[in-house]
Every structure is written in C-alpha cells, then in structure tokens.
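This part of the workshop introduces the protein records we will be handling. As an example, a complete record with its sequence and its structure tokens follows.
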Amino acid sequence: MLTSSTLTPQETPRIRWACRRGMRELDVILLPYFEKFYETLPLQKQEDFIALLDSSDQDLWRWFFTEAQPESAVLHEMVLDIKKTQDVPTVS
C-alpha cells in the first residue's frame, strides 16, 4: 500500500509500479497519466491519485469503462480528471 505521508521523490518508481495493474486496459490509462501529469499535480491531487491506486482492479475497470462511480467524491473527481486526459470508451 502506498501512503502519501511517507512518499518521497525516491519512491516514484513505487508509484509507477502501482500503475501497472492486472488488466492491460488499466495499464494504458494509469501509466500514461502518471508519466505525463503526476509530477505537475498539486500535492493534494498526487495524494488522491495514490489513493485511487489502492482501489481494486475490478473497481477501477468499472469506474473507467462503465457508468459506475466511486462512492468517494475525491476518487470520483480523480477518475474524471484521468478520463479527460485519455480517450476512454464507456461500455454498457
């Protein structure tokens, strides 16, 4: 589990690794977002991204590819932010 309170710049590889999931569909969304945007995000958004990575692959898949939404408003906003930067198709 990644925790932002203990995260240092040297732990960036841990975050990159956490972006690699068990589903290729998630890899192609999370890893490019991390590589393009993470370092320029405000600290709170970085923490929100790390919190999102603690979610299960099944939840992430549903949030990115269906109309399902996280219960947490913070995670919902992070999912929307990531979707805006990627071409994520929604399936029924």
About this structure: The longest helix spans residues 24-37. The chain has a mean pLDDT of 88. Residues 65 and 88 are 7 Å apart (CA to CA).
